[in-house]
# Entry
Amino acid sequence: MYPFQGRNLTLAILRFPGFTMSQFLKRFNSTYIRPLAVTGLLCAMMFGCGRDPEFAPNKLRIKVIETEIGQDLTATELGDVQQAVEEMFGSAEVPKLIEGVEAVSLDRLRQAAGRVYSDEQDVHFGLYRKHCIRCHGTAGDGRGPAARLLSPYPRDFRLGKFKFKSTPQGSKPTADDLARTLRMGIPGTSMPSFSLLRDSEIEALAEYVIYLSARGETERELLNQVSHTLDYSRGDRLIDFDLKTKKPADFDAQFDKLESVAKSNYAKWQVASPPSPKLPTAFPVGVVADVEDSASIDQLQKSVARGRQLFIGNLASCSKCHGEDGSGSTAPKDYDLWTKDWTVAANINPEDKAAIKPMLKAGALKPVPMRPRDLREGVCRGGGSPEDIYLRIVNGIEGTSMPAAALQPNVSEGLTTDQVWDLVNFVLNMPSVASEGKLVTANAESDQGAPQ
Ligand code: HEC
Ligand code: HEC
# Structure
């Protein structure tokens, strides 16, 4: 990677004996310094600096806990957590998988983890480092070198919460949901599309996201245990690695308990596997396919008009946040879950500059208020197909204030399925979007952000 470093650099100089100093410098400068500088910069941007990236402890979470309990966690407490997590999950170079986990496979994790290279069969390794680390960070903390410049910030996977999925709030996305996010990217954000990667690579990356997420959630739980459940001052230990050789049976008993924490974090992903049954297979009456047919157009226009009434009415109350014009300007100021996790949830006001300062030092990114989507732009991040928008409305967007709509029959005053489709038709035909062209039907073939 560094062709002219150290000894090689000296050799490079010696290979140009016939040059005058200035010729040499000129040549040296353009040939070596620039590429070196660029490589160095790129390398630093992508990986930190030359060193192999490692999983850093969740310093922000530690700081939040320390603020909560009013004292610092001890080196022993922190060391026990780190060692336990490493024993179960391995390192950024060599991932480990505890027995009995089905949500991911070690082979796929190995392909996604570690350094970037290809073997003789042209299988690519180090996929996460190559494609994701600069935004999502080594530990999936969403704090890669590029992160603070981006809005929204790249996702911190360690909280285990995801926005765009076919499953309801509180459930993990399905493997297909993750794969779809990777293939499509997230339109309107810096999250790129990885549609050129092979299916096997997408699968490996999706499983690596699950692994980082399970690892992050496990680390949080173990930090909670050492700070809130166990009392180290009275001799409690999360796990004592000295017992591994001295009293293996005791060690195994301690370790089994920790493994069950990790296992349950993986298991949440298995439950997510069957797709949500919420998406109706048939489109409702009044939503039509044939836009050439004037009766159909008439029905669609009526559906859009009903959708608009629902949008601004009290039943769906979308305009409370999105505004009657869809611009999103009426929403009360609010922050997303990833910011609230270390501010509001820790009794810190995100606007209080002095209070957030130690948190920023511990790795938090500056709080930026969340904004409802400006629906006039016609770009939906979770996909712009009618089905996508339907799912966003009925499931909400986890981690944000976008609520899951109340639906009949669960809520007697709630929306009917047909009314949700009316809302979908309205969103697809926001006045500003629709004015550019023809009406969009809820069963039009559209897989991309902006309706055509
Ligand atoms: C240039 C920056 C960038 C790169 C590179 C990038 N992402 Fe992202 N990613 C983002 C941003 C920004 C978001 C948050 C979007 C949002 O909140 O709407 C995100 C969100 C996600 C999500 C969460 C989706 C959800 O439903 O909540 C996943 C999963 C994800 N990225 C996986 C990956 C993987 C895997 C890679 C590498 C193959 C990758 N990303 C590369 C910027 C990036
Ligand atoms: C309490 C505030 C709030 C209410 C009420 C609300 N939304 Fe949202 N909505 C949001 C926020 C915030 C986002 C952006 C979430 C994010 O960061 O991805 C959003 C995003 C969306 C999106 C974009 C989805 C995507 O893939 O990008 C659509 C469509 C949407 N809302 C429609 C609706 C409809 C229809 C209603 C009424 C049934 C509604 N919203 C009610 C806050 C709200």
Summary: Residues 163, 316-318, 320-322, 331, 370, 372-373, 375, 380-382, 389, 392-393, 397, 400-403, 405, 423, 427 surround heme C (ligand 2) (CB under 6 Å). Confidence is low (pLDDT under 50) at residues 1-41, 443-452.
